[in-house]
UniProtKB/TrEMBL annotation:
Family: Belongs to the ROK (NagC/XylR) family.
Name of the protein in its database record: Glucokinase
Taxonomy of the source species: Bacteria, Pseudomonadati, Bacteroidota, Cytophagia, Cytophagales
Annotated Pfam families: ROK (PF00480)
SUPFAM superfamilies for this protein: Actin-like ATPase domain
């Protein structure tokens, strides 16, 4: 019987489930987030999917980990923030749930911090001691590794709120309540509002889409749609300023950029690199800028590493 760890990464669009054995992903699947549903109800559906995964082979679960898009008290395994998605998550004891349904210990961590640890141990950050991770997509998640340790801080905010730094004092109110955040200026959930506010919207192919996301935005920009190109370049600038702010805050040796939109890394990374070289208080040799190499599974591998650390 093969012993496995189960990792669950709650994203804004998808929930990723993976079985890990000896640091390798053995089985995985994605579920629609359906994040408007009550969290306890959705969690039970996740449990059913885990049982189906386990049934594929003769697996025995030895531990679980949850990567969640909110502020998390890692030491107590509790979710501290109410998130616009997954209602009721802050009232759920995930460690008790894992014990009740699977009889195993569990860890809970912020999703971006978990992804940072996954990339540090299994991806683009191997061998580094000072890292920043930025994930771009439905929202903007960030994490920081300082002197070989994940930054958490007194209130567990450390490194995680790069997406909620104000970069536009005249910007819209973000879903977090702050003004002109990186997320409200350059994330998937904000794209529709930003596009529709443009006087050029009705003449753009964006107006004919049921869903305005970054895949469509980059494709239409490449096709020469003027508004799509304008919004793409605006988002590139927003992300670049976010990265520069994180460099100034945490002084990393390497910045790792991940997320669902990194299929366009050939456009995104050179733009951010150019902005860093022009505007950051460092020389071009001082900080590396790289794409995440485990974008699908970094969060799962991160909570796997955290449970190993807890049990050691």
């Amino acid at each position: 019987m093969k012993e496995v760890f189960v990792g669950i990464d709650f994203g804004g669009t998808r929930i990723k489930i993976g079985l890990v054995g000896d640091g390798e992903i053995l089985e995985d699947l994605n579920m629609e987030a359906a994040a408007e549903q009550d969290f306890e109800y959705r969690l039970n559906e996740v449990g059913a999917e885990i049982h189906r995964l386990l049934a594929r082979r003769d697996y025995r679960v030895t531990g679980m980990g949850f990567a969640f898009p909110g502020i998390v008290n890692f030491y107590q395994g509790t979710i501290l923030s109410r998130y616009v998605k997954y209602p009721g998550a802050e009232n759920t004891d995930l460690r008790a749930w894992a014990n009740r349904h699977f009889g195993v210990p569990a860890v809970v961590e912020n999703d971006a911090r978990a992804a940072l640890i996954g990339e540090w141990k299994h991806g683009a950050g191997v061998g580094s001691t000072d890292l920043v991770l930025v994930t771009l997509g439905t929202g903007v998640g960030t994490g920081a590794l300082v002197n070989g340790a994940p930054l958490r801080g007194k209130n567990f905010l450390g490194g995680n709120l790069g997406g909620h730094m104000t970069i536009n004092v005249d910007g819209a109110v973000c879903n977090c309540g702050n003004i002109g955040c990186v997320e409200s200026e350059g994330s998937t959930w904000a794209l529709k509002r930003i596009a529709e506010a443009s006087p050029d919207f009705s003449a753009s192919k964006l107006a004919g889409l049921d869903l305005i996301d970054f895949k469509a935005l980059f494709e239409l920009a490449e096709e020469g749609d003027p508004l799509a190109a304008k919004l793409r370049d605006r988002c590139l600038k927003v992300w670049s300023l976010c990265v520069i702010n994180l460099i100034h805050a945490y002084d990393p040796a390497k910045v790792i950029v991940g997320g669902g939109i990194m299929k366009s890394s050939h456009i995104i990374l050179p733009y951010i690199r150019q902005m860093i070289d022009k505007h950051a208080w460092i020389t071009p040799a001082d900080v590396a800028l790289v794409a995440a190499v485990r974008p699908e599974h970094a969060g799962i591998l991160g909570v796997y590493e955290l449970l190993k650390q807890t049990n050691s």
